[in-house]
Write a structure and sequence with these properties.
It is built from 13 helices and 35 strands. It is α+β, with helices and mostly antiparallel strands and 668 residues long. Strands 28-29-31-30-32-33-34-35 form an eight-stranded mixed β-sheet, sandwiched between helices.
Amino acid sequence: MSFPSIAARMSNHARHLALALAALCGTLAHAADDPADPAHFFASPHMTGASISPDGQTVAMTMAGPDTGRIRLVAMNLATRKLTLLASYDDADVRSFDWVNDHRLVFDLADLQEPVGEHRYANGLYAVNADGGTLRQLVDRDWAPWIQRGGEKPLLPWWTHFLRPVGDGSDDVYIVTAQEGDQTHVDYVKLERLETIHGRTSEVETPVHSFEWVFDSHGALRVVTTFKDDRATVLARDPASDKWTPLAEFGRYNDGKALHPEFIDADDTLYLSANNGGDTAAVWTYDLAHHRLADKPYLVSQRYDLAPTYLSSQGKLAGLRYDVDAEVTQWIAPDVEALQAKIDKLLPSTVNRLSVAPHGDGHFVVITAYSDHVPGLYFLYSVPDGKMMTLGNARPDIDPKKMADMEQVHYAARDGLEIPAYLSVPRGAERRNLPLVVLVHGGPYMRGRVWGWDPEVQFLAAHGYAVLEPEFRGSTGYGAKLFAAGWKQWGLAMQDDLADGVKWAVAQGLVDPKRVCIAGASYGGYAVLMGLIKDPNLYRCGVDWVGVTDIDLLFTSRWSDASDAWKKYGLTQLVGDPVADAAKFKATSPTENAAKIHAPVLLAYGEKDKRVPLEHGERFHDALMKQPGAKVEWIVYEDEGHGWHYYEHTIDFWNRVAKFLDANIGAH
């Protein structure tokens, strides 16, 4: 099949439809005294999710309460349109939820208003009926060991996590519990079946070191992936004999022979993601009865790795949802495919994600609509009469008419490798001689962006800056060639890809070469500092938050949350060996080369960061301050971790960023 540019298709539609969408929500964006105020972009959303029950009779939603702003779980009976409050807490937000069966849900919690340094609670796990009855806490939220009081049945420990509903119509779910390890690694996990009414559990036997599980259409465990050191093994269970048979073994971190099992259809066909000799990861089918991979892929893109979410109905595969330049849903059932097309025609300027009842009468679907202009709108659509009812708006204060356009672009790196990137241009701006922020994603071995609304990008665009987000070599999602080209290239070819993106934008006439700043967090922060070191004539300033400043510290810092296995196998393969590559590490570590930085730098770190400990920032800051004329703004946020959790810190940081950018590359 072909893969058209989804973002481009939507960009070609009349963008004024975003206004019509907002009107459909009944909540046009509020007039803002200052439309570039970070509060408009980084405030907590008003609504975070909506999903229809398996029988199509109820819609569950997570939305903010009127007083505290805490996210609550609410259900709406579609026959009566009656709303029922299922869960609401003064000191916590409902983080996520899932349907267990037609009438029961599970959910967990998070405190979205609590700084990481004061974090006292885990997510827990709760279950409740859709009518509000039989609410039960199943998993403890307290980090401390459980102390049984009186005759109460102990809750499951806080390190227990929800995996998925069993899916056989019962009130049961699958959970996993860490068994041994410390804060940086888990030796093994135990898979259990949990009955959500009374809290009873039963262990599910699995091969040792199992960390990924795939279940059949009856909810029985059929395929597992085990991890041991740097090796992964996929095994399948024969339902008749209960015997586990190895299907594949491969390197855990960067092996082109890797198989990723994901879904089993009602006919016992296994769907998996694999490269199988190709550049991009495709969807393949595997015959479990004969242990045979199909001769050709089920679904493949020549440009993108495909790792779909599988949508099922009555145990059968109903559709696949995956990312190309934007999210796409490909339905298999003709009636749902036609419905998707009808809704896409009605809402042509958004990605429209349908929540379809797996075994309902098909009268209702829930639509989550979003785009680069629209953070998220939620609708209930009546199939028989085509009527649409508003459920909510994720961010009613955002005016779609003022949001920047985001598009995917491609440019050639200096060695000829094609680099994908996302470009966002301020609404109404002339596309020439714009000030530019190069926003570098973290990871770095991950995909940075999928088309849609982003608060950081839109905040920068609201201040008049074009934003370029390169998917530099080492990024995932675009094929093995781009990914492998980034191995052991920190500060080298990975860095050149960013500079080549700037030069491309300048050559297009889009960007003023004298007004370019580089910004990013984590690995992105590292790239900021190395950009100022390696390309001092290209960037006028840099914004680094929670950034890596010394590659050696990735291996040696005692405060890091990186596991021993990742340090021993993953980092050495992808970043380099601290002994064999010592000279290269020194040449490409910002702290070792701080004397080469002459541009203004904004540095921000979290006091309690365990991913990139504060030691990174402190060492670099000390080295930079020894240089004559150093221009440094230094911020340490107390009780914060790897990014800003506390609202006041987020607002403070982005206000500082806007002031820093305006002073150095002056959009206004």
